[in-house]
Structure formats: structure tokens, C-alpha cells
Amino acid sequence: MSPSSSTTPTWHQFERKVEEVKPSKTDINYLVMDYLITNGYPAAAKKFAVEANIQPRADVELIQERVEIRTAIHSGNIQLAIEKINELNPQILDEDAPLHFALLRLQLVELIRSCTTSSDGDISPALEFATSQLAPRAPTNPQFLEDLERTLTLLIFPTDNLSPSLAHLLHPDLRKDIANRVNEAILLNQGARKEARLRNLVKLRAWAEQKAREAKKDLPEKLDLGLGDNPNTHNSNPLASSTSASHNGSNDTVMTNNGDVDPMIS
Length: 266
Description:
The protein is mainly α. It has 13 helices and no strands. Helices cover about 60% and strands about 0% of the residues. The longest helix is centred in the middle third of the chain and has 21 residues. Involved in the proteasome-dependent degradation of fructose-1,6-bisphosphatase.
């Protein structure tokens, strides 16, 4: 494309500079591979490694432990998730009291969900769990006490008439949030980065763009992320393609919103 006529939109100077420093396809492929491994998509990582003709920089099989823990949390089986975390390394929860409490509170939420929807409406299992597991921990942190009190409020009001702050506790997004925190804690415990390089780059880019606009720099109205060869080509984004492949016929369990690619980079 060239600014050869008045009817053809001229290339913005910034866009020309971006083209001059465009990353190589190999660099992008390794960023995508790093994202798939960090966020726990073993089947997609294997498939993408073959299609991109690159070698994973980590043992893909080691991802499976995180996948199983994530799957347990997403399905509401928090006790199983806690057991698997402790089997992996008990220090993960022993050294992270807020995460341990968040998991236990989520387990209480699941118990309340089960109790309030059962035929007999017996809430004693939820109360016993709150008394034995959360009540002793609540006084150690004001936020713990507030979270426990708010969660127990679910036993009072009908689930179809909850305030937004209470309805959030029963929304699947809470499971996803806790699963993400657990994934990050495991990665840090294993000496890895808790967040994929791609997300860090996107955050840095967003920050730089914000600062440039605040400084009234001359930028295009919209900046394309540029992960694909052609932004107008369907599924040109290699991350979208690899995770879509993962969702079709694999046993990867998504940890993003509604099964889609991470909204930060899609």
C-alpha cells in the first residue's frame, strides 16, 4: 500500500514505523507457545508445536497437573482441588493464607449452593464447614471475616433475589478467578512466571499507548495488535487458532471467559 493518490488512505507515520519493527513469525509463535503452556493448554500446545514446527520450551506433560486442579475448581469440586494442590506441594497453600482462605470460601459457596437446592434444604453441612474450616481463620484478617460474613448471607436470601455483591459469589466467574489465582501460585512455586509473556507485552503496549495519547501524540484512532499476518483474514491470529483447535476435540479445559481466547489479547 502506498499513499499514491488522494482516494487511497495514506499510511500514518506511526503505522510505517510499526511495520519497520514488525516481529518475526517465529517470535510470535514462541509467544503463543509460552501463553499456551503458562495458561494450561497442553493439547493445544502440542498441536501448535507441530503446526508451527517449533519445540516447546517446557515439558508439556507437566501442565497436566495444573489442568486437573483447574478442572476440579471449574466443576465446583474444591475439596479435590485442594487435595491435588497439597499433593503437588503443600507449601503452596501453607505459605499463601489468602489463597487458601479463598479456596475454602469457594468450597463453602459450593456447599451452600448444594444445600439450598436440595430437597430437604438442610444447611447444617454448610454451617459445620464454616464453623470448622473458616471461622478459626477469619479473625486473623479483617477481609477474611468480611468475606465469611458475606458468604453466610447466602443462607438467608433466596438465590433469585440477591444483590450484585452476593450474586457474584454464585456466578461461575468466581470459580474462574480462583482457578487463575491457583494457576499463578503453582507457577510461582515452580519458579516460573505467573503470567505469560504475551499478556505482559499487551499490558506494556496498552500503557505506552495511553501515555502517548495523554501526551497528545499523533496516533491512529485504533491500533491493531498485529498478531496475525492479515488482520482482515479470519482466524489469522495464531493464538485464536491454537486455542480454537484446543477446544475442538481435546481435553483442555479453558480458563478464560466463556471459553474464548483471553480478552486481553483477542
